[in-house]
Design goal:
The protein has ten helices and eleven strands. The protein has about 300 residues and is an alpha/beta fold.
């Protein structure tokens, strides 16, 4: 399957349009997720460090201005590589990072929302990213063992001290989002959302109404929709593009606040993802994908 007809723009990601986080932090809607530039199990150094650096540099060349990372990716590896590859940063680049998870080992993720940990995590991210303030800090996952108000209050405290410019949340429901907004201005929500997992539809609808950026993680999951004869494969075949590109285009069309961040450790794959911003699905395509019955 060829995608050459999409590869005719120097900065294809820019075709996705823009969104302003918090009203003063504009980003190109199609971003890059920097989780997979680390080692297996999101642990340790990448198997090909040169390729990881090239991916980061190429993301800017493709028009991407939003890079999503976290202190737990590696841990610490993703943030260090971003600084190594891109510092000093272009003025229009927004680096969103996260705090609130710790890593006992490969593939292991444990919540830690204690105020002291969040403070230390933010200081660590600032140092690794070589920044005086984080553009966007998202609570990676609410810690059930720490009062939610304390976790949000700590981020507000860090914001008042100038360590954080904007606050976001990840892996939350609508009620948690509403509760957080009573104490802080929340500019983004990062929940799992894709063609085959729409459990966060309510959170997306809320963010759309309230003009809060919605950053779907695991955006390219397609299940059996991309199998031969499946709706994603049929649409991709008719358009002579890749199923993953259709999945990204569907996300971008879903809401004006949608900010997909497909991640990869491959320059070639990165380019394919960025070119998805040039793809325009028909109303019939979108309706078919909207209404597809996802098998459990």
């Amino acid at each position: 399957m060829s995608t050459s007809h999409l590869a005719q723009h120097d900065r294809p990601a820019a075709a996705s349009g823009s969104f302003s986080l918090g009203g003063d932090l504009p980003v190109v809607r199609l971003g890059f997720g920097a989780m997979r530039i680390t080692g297996h199990g999101i642990w340790g150094e990448p198997p090909d460090r040169d390729e990881a650096i090239a991916v980061l540099k190429t993301s800017l060349d493709l028009g991407i201005t939003l890079i999503d990372t976290a202190d737990s990716y590696g841990p610490e590896v993703s943030e260090r590589l971003i600084a190594e590859a891109l510092y000093p940063y272009p003025r229009d680049l927004v680096i969103a990072t996260k705090a609130g998870l710790v890593r006992p080992g490969p593939g292991e993720w444990v919540s830690d929302g204690r105020p002291q940990h969040l403070r230390e995590a933010v200081e660590g991210s600032l140092k690794r990213l070589r920044l005086d303030a984080l553009d966007l800090l998202q609570l990676h996952r609410p810690d059930p063992n720490v009062p939610f108000a304390e976790q949000i209050g700590t981020l507000v405290e860090l914001q008042r001290k100038g360590k954080i410019r904007h606050i976001g949340l990840s892996n939350v429901d609508v009620e948690q989002l509403k509760t957080a907004r009573e104490a802080a201005t929340i500019v983004s929500v990062q929940n799992r959302y894709n063609l085959v997992d729409r459990e966060s539809e309510g959170e997306l609808e809320y963010c759309t109404r309230e003009a809060i950026g919605f950053i779907p993680w695991f955006p390219l999951a397609t299940g059996d929709l991309a199998e031969p004869g499946g709706p994603l494969e049929r649409i991709a075949g008719r358009l002579d593009v890749l199923p993953a590109q259709v999945a990204i285009a569907w996300l971008l069309a879903k809401s004006a606040v949608m900010l997909p961040i497909p991640g990869t450790a491959s320059v070639a794959h990165l380019k394919e993802n960025a070119e998805a911003a040039l793809l325009k699905l028909t109303a019939a395509d979108l309706e078919e994908l909207d209404n597809v019955v996802v098998s459990s």
